[in-house]
Write a structure and sequence with these properties.
Helix content: 25-40%
CATH superfamily of the largest domain: Mur-like, catalytic domain
CATH topology of the largest domain: UDP-N-acetylmuramoyl-L-alanine:D-glutamate ligase
Distance between the termini: 32 Å
Shape: globular
Strand content: 15-25%
CATH architecture of the largest domain: 3-Layer(aba) Sandwich
Number of strands: 17
Number of helices: 15
Radius of gyration: 21 Å
CATH class of the largest domain: Alpha Beta
Strand order of the largest sheet: 4-3-2-5-1-6-7-8
Structural class: alpha/beta
Amino acid sequence: MRFTSLPAWLAWQETLHPNAIDLGLERVRVVAQRMQLLQPAYVLITVGGTNGKGSSVAMLEAILLAAGYRVGAYTSPHLLRYNERVRVNGIEASDAQLCAAFAHIDAARGDTSLTYFEFGTLAALDIFSNAKLDIVVLEVGLGGQLDAVNILDADVALVTSVALDHTEWLGTDRDSIAREKAGIYRAGKPALFGEPDVPPSLQQHTRDIGAALYRYGTDFGARPVANGWSWWGLGKERHALVLPALRGAHQLQNAAGVLMALELLAERVPVTQAQIRTGLMTVALPGRFQVLPGPVTHIYDVAHNPHGAHALAQTLRTHPCSGRTFAVCGMLRDKDIRATLAELAAQVDAWYVAPVGSPRTASAEELVIAVHVVAMGKPVVALPDIATAQQQALADARDGDRIVVFGSFYTVAAALPASL
């Protein structure tokens, strides 16, 4: 084994390939073939989209675990521990499991260079191949068509949403991005889209490959009712459903796509109404409107683009507080910073901005300028790091106020209490 610790493996992987992001399936497929990972025995759901992927994976995982299935889940990025990315039956992979998988990949790759994400994807598939699983849920890392998880053919593929993000890799308009994300669909297999406004390129791609397209609002959907909601699709309805434990009206849209995916797989992995209820009640996902109550409420959300910030703003409006709202924000420079902050400008009374722990970070000065543009007249303070920004916001807050930490996974990771 090249290394004996997980940090050593990960540090080496970050330097192995010349580009941190190098979209394409040729290298990773070659190695996966050598490792005999391309024809898994388990049922596979692949989840892509601009926002909503992590929530959808978490709901699928929770419901399937409640139904008693052996479930694998692969997500990215992580918040606090790399191990979060790979779960078997709801339990994070251990350092020893990940190191063994990395050693297996290293032995199989020969002189093939792999990115950090490709190593992680192959490690997840290697761990899943040894776990005798019934079903696996894979989250797309970036895009879809050329993302490493797309080396496997999904039995059902769900694209949760399409909005502008990662434009330097995926395209500068929604239709171009949708075409990339639609690459996870397969001929003759169900292709789900989780928004009512379906991009023309996505519809055309499903027609071109002969996939069966199911659209939110047309072929399936959600109806809020008193103290819950109802789901409909495929000529069926499910009533008296509990609201997902993940907060926000947008989570009903995500949940509707999740239930449609499960309905389409009902012959192979049936689930009952009671199991759906249990899964929706118990689902948890750090960093998605994660609330820590107290005299000053803390809210953590990884919203990092205008689409995600819009959902966060809506949820803040529907969960008002008695006092003021302070924002602690750090973002990456390659995001649409002004448009993201603009979505939250009306909800925030004061801003505390800082750089995050990434070479791609926006500086505090850049964030201050953006706040002045979109939230003219609101106070803004530049701090050296996110932890200090959160401390200053808490020092300025009074009972009944709330602090909203958002802007990237790096931002939330730096602010979340270590005990979580």
